[in-house]
UniProtKB/TrEMBL annotation:
PROSITE patterns: ARGC (PS01224). Its EC number is 1.2.1.38. It catalyses: N-acetyl-L-glutamate 5-semialdehyde + phosphate + NADP(+) = N-acetyl-L-glutamyl 5-phosphate + NADPH + H(+). Residues 75-212 form the Semialdehyde dehydrogenase NAD-binding domain. This is Probable N-acetyl-gamma-glutamyl-phosphate reductase, chloroplastic. It comes from the Eukaryota. The keyword NADP applies. The keyword Amino-acid biosynthesis applies. Keywords: Amino-acid biosynthesis, Arginine biosynthesis, NADP, Oxidoreductase. PANTHER family: N-ACETYL-GAMMA-GLUTAMYL-PHOSPHATE REDUCTASE, CHLOROPLASTIC-RELATED, N-ACETYL-GAMMA-GLUTAMYL-PHOSPHATE REDUCTASE, CHLOROPLASTIC-RELATED-RELATED. The active site is at 220. The gene is LOC100191877. Belongs to the NAGSA dehydrogenase family. Type 1 subfamily. GO terms for biological process: L-arginine biosynthetic process.
Amino acid sequence: MAFTTLGGCGAQASVRLAPQNGILGSNSKPFAGIILKKPQQVGSLPLRARGSIFSSPRRLFSPKAAAPKSGDSIRIAVLGASGYTGAEIVRILANHPQFHIKVMTADRKAGEQFGSVFPHLITQDLPRLVAIKDADFSDVDAVFCCLPHGTTQEIIKSLPRHLKIVDLSADFRLRDINEYAEWYGHSHRAPELQGEAVYGLTELKRDDIRNARLVANPGCYPTSIQLPLVPLVKAKLIKLTNIIIDAKSGVSGAGRGAKEANLYTEIAEGIHAYGITSHRHVPEIEQGLTDAAESKVTISFTPHLMCMKRGMQSTVYVELASGVTPRDLYEHLKSTYENEEFVKLLHGSNVPCTSHVVGSNYCFMNVYEDRIPGRAIIISVIDNLVKGASGQALQNLNLMMGLPENMGLQYQPLFP
Ligand SMILES: NC(=O)C1=CN([C@@H]2O[C@H](COP(=O)(O)OP(=O)(O)OC[C@H]3O[C@@H](n4cnc5c(N)ncnc54)[C@H](OP(=O)(O)O)[C@@H]3O)[C@@H](O)[C@H]2O)C=CC1
Ligand SMILES: CC(=O)N[C@@H](CCC(=O)OP(=O)(O)O)C(=O)O
């Protein structure tokens, strides 16, 4: 007998037929939230399940979001606005009804008009870029800090205490300042602030973020990896050993600064691994998984640079806990993220692709049964500049300001 899976995206989503134990044309077996044994069952599904490749309906507002304070204008400073994540904040905020940019800083580009640094945003009415030392924060309520790690701790320390801050750098992500020193090569420059920093993986830390003054926005790789793994570790569905992560990033992940390794000639038509066994996101990911497991978790993590502008894929190989099936992993993630607007479990044979999330704040993921018994493969994709940086930062600041978490973030991916 044939199985019928429901997909949802136009050409891709017509009813698919698969052999009894798998998806046609594929050795791996994705775990669809909706796998029907008989085609006639389709008619009995709730309408919202039809035409969606996701495990849950899209919600306008995230659960528990406070009511918007209509009309309030919240004044924003973007530090490092001449970089990629800074520009992405500016692009996204163009559609935010309550956040208005008052201050924008740069280093080498201080003094320039933003529209000449980023001509794609020339239509926006924005202040001139200034050096941080010349910025006036007295009329500012909140800050997106988009500066390189290492420079950020001292700068944040010098900012007035009335400001709410989302820091996109790695400077406040590691709770243990000795671990920070070990991985970042210098001692922490604002240890007194580290204690108040809240790690901003929005979907999993929402309640802490709401009350925070300083949020450490997660790294892009850690976002794409922890969103699937933390719930599975917490529920003890996977073993804590032999977690292997193969991850790939677009070049914008390295920032806008000129670097020989990021020249077109070095990157085009190729892929290369870097930071093998030593990437500074290892302790960040292990911190999140260790918290979830309540015992030390170690990982194998190898990032790769891809010849693409944006996008990030993490392919994660895990061993199942005793008695657990890959379907259990899928079902657990599905229920964890059921009411989430920005994290989506794909159905059936839909494979998460970076090109389907680029420009959006979505994380798409799916779970596959490995051909080796007792193992599963998880694929998770994000846009490194949006969910991996500026989009998640906006989710966090919305929460910190008591606004709906999705405010200004309700746009769809750019495709093709
Ligand atoms: N790119 C990504 O995908 C992600 C990045 N991040 C993190 O976000 C932060 C920003 O990244 P990104 O936008 O890519 O970086 P960029 O290199 O593109 O931008 C860096 C910004 O910081 C400014 N700057 C550099 N040095 C100093 C300094 N000493 N004092 C003051 N300002 C300075 C630059 O100004 P100017 O251009 O004028 O010199 C620029 O505005 C980094 O910590 C990064 O690790 C986090 C997640 C994902
Ligand atoms: C492609 C590339 O170079 N990516 C960056 C990660 C970007 C990011 O998330 O960096 P932070 O932890 O500093 O915020 C890297 O591997 O260092």
